[in-house]
């Protein structure tokens, strides 16, 4: 596996010297091969027809559960809701101790302390959204303060949003610097960079934003906030997986991918795993390198899992509502 | 591959198909015995004998042509809207029985179920729907309104049902009746189609199906009461047919071999181009006359494209055609496998570098791994001759002019592909390439509304679209 220490990771990228100016960054990003939308959609659709059965399905369901960032990002979130989420993340299926835990729970910054306390010494991570989530429309020092605040409260992972306005108007260096600074503010916490692909609109833009986020040092690239439609779609995730695969070949650095928003069924989650497997490769089939941001997905995964073990479909009342 | 995510087998059930131990000929709306020596059709993935099929001799062919001639009297005079009803009915039955047709096609041909299920059968049904729509609008097509008469149609083994649809649907829509000969290695879906004609109450004799090998085809082409010959297959056989009908008043369309250039420019959407290359040559095991069997890649991106291509080829899943996750199925026959092996060995002997995807091949049946050759030049036989298998020859070029020169430097001219982000270059290349179909940023796309056919030794005439009516009207 590839080294992921921050100081090692940035060195070869700095050597590329692409982030010297807006112009050089622009030349680099626009020099990336284009994405043919029709072709990408067809490839995603073709991979979506893989038939995953029996042992492969059982494996995929457990893998998907272990990749879930169990998420609540609502204005009405309460400490009670977060505690209940933390309990669910640790014991997704209380009746079956072999059921894996989720990778993390993902909350707003002010609830990190509650989450951290509820999880105690559990290996389940706490991810916090920061940087004026979900719009990202605030001054840089506000975004940095937001980040530091979440990290100080104990967040293991920070999910930041990029400034889509700056990106779409071609101010790539500004976006780059912002990601780099947020990363610095993260300290030891891992940084997931949300591209909000639904607002970037084209797959060319998705590929450029992916590279920009990776060049600036993001540990993960994430599709969406979940507040904008469309959120995670298979073609978008496919293009991002191509980007992380190509980035590792170019720099030796492995970056993770996190689709978020809109993945509600086990079937959908398995389709994503198939795309991971066949596009980026099996190295990414690991919660360290692939996460699924979701709130309702976990229950469907659990119901499918129960069906695989018992042979019967129990229905929604046999899993907890949050 | 060492992945923890090995897909468990996901076989499609064979139980939807009822294969009889023996089949007769379909003449005059009924199944009848043939007078030739019955032959066996085998499953190329397992070498299992599937059924015995009757061989039609000259007498049987004559019988079938006479039945078609009798049926033509009423069928050709029927209002177009009435003929359309039958075609719509056939199209709907094909859609309804699509699973059965797809499974049988994969068993008899060796192609992966995902292709017969998602590509072949849906387009077959779409073809009948499309030409049903033309049946009452022939006067708007601009090719005349009178049918030709009896059409002798000979189709290959690579797309048994699809080629049947391409031939039968426009012929019937225009008021012709047909005698169709499917390939001797893949007759079963044509015989199931005969049952569908019965189910649709198609008047007796409108569609007749005679099974057999080359001699049956010869008898059919040479029959004096045939008005039109439509053939899809090898260039060699096409030439024989052209000789046979020369000097007669029979109309002919020929859709023959190809050696298509798939041209990748340095500004291409590279990941999609790699998909297009894979689809271009490994779709249907490369048993595609318009397959992109020559990859022409711009030198500046050649290394990158090859690297990505090999990585992608390593993920192709070769094996049981009935497994829903199989990407590449079996070679259709032992003879074809021998030919692919022979030409590949010649490629190596001539100095090209051979690379095959690392995959385990089943121990029974006819298999060939997805393979590419680098260091190929225009002078190599693998760059000139149609291999008709999963073998790609990779050549490079430096300028668009060189790409055009190399692409056109072939006796064939069926199809070509262009990969670039630049629209003006696409249009320029499309004008310069001597090929019946030029795909831009895609490959192997078929649609009933789109005409298909070749230049030079790839044949003459067009199938599909409005143009496809021309071959069946006067």
Automatic annotation (TrEMBL), chain A:
Keyword Lyase (UniProt): yes
Any single Gene Ontology cellular-component annotation: cytoplasm
Protein EC: 4.1.2.4
GO molecular function, one term: deoxyribose-phosphate aldolase activity
InterPro entries (UniProt xref): Aldolase_TIM, DeoC, DeoC/FbaB/LacD_aldolase
Record keywords: Lyase, Schiff base
Protein origin, superkingdom: Bacteria
GO BP term, pick one: deoxyribonucleotide catabolic process
Transmembrane regions listed in the UniProt entry: none
Pathway annotation: Carbohydrate degradation; 2-deoxy-D-ribose 1-phosphate degradation; D-glyceraldehyde 3-phosphate and acetaldehyde from 2-deoxy-alpha-D-ribose 1-phosphate: step 2/2
SMART domains per the UniProt record, alphabetical: DeoC
Catalytic activity of the protein: 2-deoxy-D-ribose 5-phosphate = D-glyceraldehyde 3-phosphate + acetaldehyde
Keyword Lyase: yes
Family matches, as Pfam families: DeoC
Family: Belongs to the DeoC/FbaB aldolase family. DeoC type 2 subfamily.
Protein's recorded name: Deoxyribose-phosphate aldolase
Taxonomic source organism: Nocardioides anomalus
Organism classification: Bacteria, Bacillati, Actinomycetota, Actinomycetes, Propionibacteriales
Gene from which the chain derives: deoC
TrEMBL record, chain B:
Any one Gene Ontology molecular-function term assigned to this protein's record: oxidoreductase activity, acting on the aldehyde or oxo group of donors, NAD or NADP as acceptor
Keywords: Oxidoreductase
Gene3D superfamilies: Aldehyde Dehydrogenase, Chain A, domain 1 (3.40.605.10), Aldehyde Dehydrogenase, Chain A, domain 2 (3.40.309.10)
InterPro entries: Ald_DH/histidinol_DH, Ald_DH_C, Ald_DH_CS_GLU, Ald_DH_N, Aldehyde_DH_dom
UniProt cross-references to Pfam families, sorted A to Z: Aldedh
Transport listed as a keyword: no
Alphabetized CDD domains for the sequence: ALDH_F16
Residues the record marks as active site: 255
Domain Aldehyde dehydrogenase: 31-473
Keyword Oxidoreductase on entry: yes
Family classification: Belongs to the aldehyde dehydrogenase family.
Official protein name in the record: Aldehyde dehydrogenase family protein
